[in-house]
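notes to self, project folder thing:

trying the whole complex as one job this time. last attempt i did each chain seperately and stitching them together was a nightmare. two parts in total, labels are on each line so i dont mix them up again. if this works i'll redo the older ones the same way
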Amino acid sequence: MQHDELCYTQPEAEVIEVCRVGDLPAGEAVRVATVDPPIAVFHTEDGDFYAVDDTCTHQDASLADGWLEGCTVECPLHASCFDLRTGQPSGPPATKPIRTYPVVVEDGVIRVAYSEVAC
Amino acid sequence: MRTAAVVGASLAGLSTARALRQQGFDGRLVIVGDEPHRPYDRPPLSKEFLAGKTADIGLRTPDDDDLDLDFRLGTRALSLHPRDRSLQLSNGQTLRCDGVVIATGARARWLPGTEGVNGVHVLRTLDDAIRLRSELVPGVRLVVVGAGFIGAEVASTARYLGADVTVIEAEPLPLLRQLGKEVGTVCAGLHADHGVRLITGAQVKRILGANRVRSVELADGRQIPAEVVVVGIGAAPNIEWLAGSGLELANGVVTDAACATHLPEVVAVGDVAASYSVHLHERHRAEHWTNALEQPVTAAATLLGSPRPHLSAPYFWSDHYGVRIQFAGHRREGDTVRVIEGDTDRRSFLAVYERGDVLVGVLGMNQPKLFTRWRRQLARPVLAP
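result (full assembly):
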């Protein structure tokens, strides 16, 4: 949480309201295109929320369309895997990480602290 | 095994080298590639690279620097001698190896007699793409022979660049054999949507022109004017150099499901390998990118003494005319096709291919999310006892 708070206070961070918790069932993802580059917010089966860059670092594909298993998302185009907790690629062909962003759930609303320089 | 050589420096070759290192091989690892370029990715050659949107198609990563790979680029393997597994190289060197990976890929087929005619192109290599790109100027009349994925992607990119495009296809519909008539009809519609003339059921008789292509003559006598022609009629495996090696060659290097050939410590992988497929229950030479990425894990394991069959279902994708097509599985004549979501007229749908009541293929057009889910429903391969 301390990590989240630190990021939250960064001057360039912008708080984005994503949706209500009830609108994002476990196992699902939503693409947020109001920011550029767009982000994807995931709700894992374990009940955790993660926000990451939506575009795969390998080629143009939306990770929100991918396959979520545990804390890993598999890109729908070439099956690159990313760890949602760290953004690190965990399966080829991607070699570069995606950025991760802090998620805050408050009063039933999912919000993401979006910044150009991600945490 | 002290020295291993990978012959072929494209995706399958580089991926096998990486897999060998990842699986613990710490001997000398040589990669022989006939092109002068460092390994690069081929799918963008007909899309973003041809369109001039990206030049960044290199496959090597900073991590590869730690793999201690001995690249011999611009060098062709001329022969493989089975007794001592030595490779004769075009630079005069002989390379004695304890293990050999054959990853020489495939080359584009030409229409007979058209190779070397000015204005007539194939598209397989980086140099092919650079040559073609220089001729795709606004208003140029382009004829694409073959409405497969390469043909469709070139037609799409050429339209984006302002060319006047005609596509000629021998079959009654594009991609008929791969995707069937229902989806082939949709793909034909994509050409029409974007102002590309599609002539189907047409055989090319010859290419006319003195120093440079002037037109394409069809078997029925029609002449289609063209300043540029791209021949996209498939690829042939690069196996000629293996004549006399003792390897079984039949439209590729014949291997089992684990990439093992008939010679010990020699494996084949990627577009050149005619491997037994546990999905198709027959020998199959897959020319798809994902196969060239995934099969190397199997090939490396086999070379290092732990053979296990490659299990992934075939998968390929194509982006053209702003539409993303994804297909997993395998279609055969007689399979039924059902659109279960979306609308073919809106170019956004999911279709399933069934053989009896077994799901054998899934196709998505602009439906990556649904496709990703349905792909997992494909029947698992039945392994031979």
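what i see at first glance: The first strand of chain B starts at residue 3 and ends at 7.
need to look closer tmrw
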